[in-house]
Structures are given as C-alpha cells and as structure tokens.
Amino acid sequence: MLQDDASQRLAAVQTAIARAAKIADITLIAVSKTHDAATIQPLIDAGQRVFGENRVQEAQGKWPQLRETTSGIALHLVGQLQSNKADEAVALFDAIHGVDRPSLVTALAKAMDKADRRPACFLQVNIGDEAQKGGCPVAELPALLAEAKAAALPVAGLMCVPPAGLEAAPYFALLAKLAREHDLAGLSMGMSSDYETAVTLGATHVRVGTALFGERA
Ligand SMILES: *Cc1c(COP(=O)(O)O)cnc(C)c1O
After folding, report:
1. Which of 69, 123, 117 is nearest to 93 (CA)?
2. Which pLDDT does position 157 carry in this prediction?
3. Which of 28, 53, 191, 206 to mutate to test the pocket of ligand 1 (most atoms within 8 A of CB)?
4. What is the mean pLDDT of residues 120-128?
5. Environment class of residue 187 by beta-carbon count within 10 Å: exposed (0-12), middle (13-18) or buried (19+)?
6. Is the C or the N end of the chain the one with fewer CB within 10 Å?
7. Other C-beta atoms within 10 Å of 5: how many?
8. What percent of the chain has pLDDT over 70?
9. Residue 126: CA atoms inside 13 Å, Cβ hemisphere, count?
10. Is 192's C-beta closer than 6 angstroms to any atom of ligand 1?
11. CA-based nearest residue to 172, from 195, 209, 150, 201
12. Burial of 75 (0-12, 13-18, 19+ CB in 10 A)
C-alpha cells in the first residue's frame, strides 16, 4: 500500500469515527488479516498502533518482526479461537474478542495463569442467533459470563458480528443493551460497512479492515 493511500484512508476513518462518536475514547482496530508486512507498514508509519488478526498462526508469522521495529503495537485477536491454541493466543495478543464457550473460557484461564499474562477478553455473542455462526447464543450469555467471572477472566465487554445483508443497527442496539444489563463497558462492534452506525450506538472498539487496506484478495 502506498504511504499516501495509507495516511488518507486512516484519516478518513478517524474523521468518520469522530463525527459519529458519543464517547471520546474509541479504539480503532485495523484488521490486517491476509495482508503482508509490506502492506501493513505504511499504516504503522501513518500512526496506527492497534491491529487485529483472525488467525493465530498468521499473526505469529508477521507480527513479532513488525513489533521489533515499532513500540506500542497492540494486537487483538478478532476471530474464532480453538482451545488448543489458547497458550499461543495468550502469548501473542493483547485482547481476545472471540470468547464464546465455556471450554474456551477454561482453556484461556489456564493459559493466562501459566503465562502470568492477562489479555482483555470480549465475549462474542451470536447476536442474530444464526445457525453456523460463532458466538454464544443470546440466551446463554448470562451463564457464559458467570463462568468467565468464576475463572477470573478479565472480561472487557461484548463483541458481535451481525447477520450479513441485514441492517446492523438493531443488532448493535441489542448488544449495547446486553452490555448495560451486565454492567460491561466494552462494546466491540462495527466493521468497514457499518462502523459509523456502531459508533453511534455506543461501540468502544471498531474492527475495520477493508476501509483501511482495500479489498482482501
Ligand atoms: C475481517 C473481520 C473484520 C474486518 O472486516 P472489514 O469488512 O474488512 O472491515 C472485522 N471483524 C472480524 C471478526 C473479522 O473477521
């Protein structure tokens, strides 16, 4: 990616967030999955420091080197996580957004104790109760949250990916309501096509890939 393109895209997304924002402190997670280090570096040079990846192995392949040359990089895991990758995820990431089942809560708690490192966790909710979609069913959120608290997982908030092809606003509003009910401050919602709507409805973390990097191959 050209440095000018990176700077312009970053400024455009930052401006749109600021315009829609109700709260001052919104974290823009630049989702760099599938993109190589050469594509990511211009965004780092433009000042971006928070990045998101959806695969542990892919992130292990490119981020240790990128982090060597720039301090203050924060890495968020935004995709599904298998319990057998919990140790690696805890070692590499500063936040984990896909916590959606009791077995993963247990695996992450164990990995955090072992590593003595505690990345912030977002509980992923299957907000449209769709078949074949990641996230815990809405009705099971109270039980999952209780498990996470019992395991002393550092729960930062809730995360969702609304159903494709439908208006996202009602789903964002529902996630915000669930977070309020459970006294959770963090709301990870909004992607390239709907991050401004998400921010309007209270997002604290938006996960933006395409609008910053262009289309994925
Ligand atoms: C890929 C991905 C994003 C970014 O999507 P864009 O539409 O490219 O902005 C956000 N969240 C998750 C969970 C993703 O997998």
Report:
1. 117
2. 98
3. 191
4. 98
5. buried
6. C
7. 15
8. 100
9. 15
10. yes
11. 201
12. buried
- Contacts of 193 by beta carbon, 8 Å cutoff, 6+ apart: 168
User: How many Å lie between the centroid of ligand 1 and the Cα of residue 31?
Assistant: 6
pLDDT tier, 211 (very low <50, low <70, confident <90, very high otherwise): very high
Copy the structure tokens of residue 130: 């769709």
Q: Which residue has the higher pLDDT, 173 or 79?
A: 173
Q: What is the rounded distance in angstroms from the CA atom of residue 12 to the CA atom of residue 18?
A: 10
pLDDT of residue 112: 98
For 7, 49, 57, 160, 161, the CA distances from 124, given in Å and listed in that order, are: 31, 23, 21, 6, 8
Q: Separation of 3 CA from ligand 1 center, angstroms? A: 22
Q: What is the pLDDT of residue 24?
A: 76
61 falls in which pLDDT band (50, 70, 90)?
very high
* Position 215 pLDDT exceeds 90: yes
Cβ(157) – ligand 1 distance below 6 Å: no
Give the position of tokens 């981020």: 63
Q: Which residues contact 66 (CB under 8 A, 6 or more apart)?
A: 37, 40, 41, 44, 73
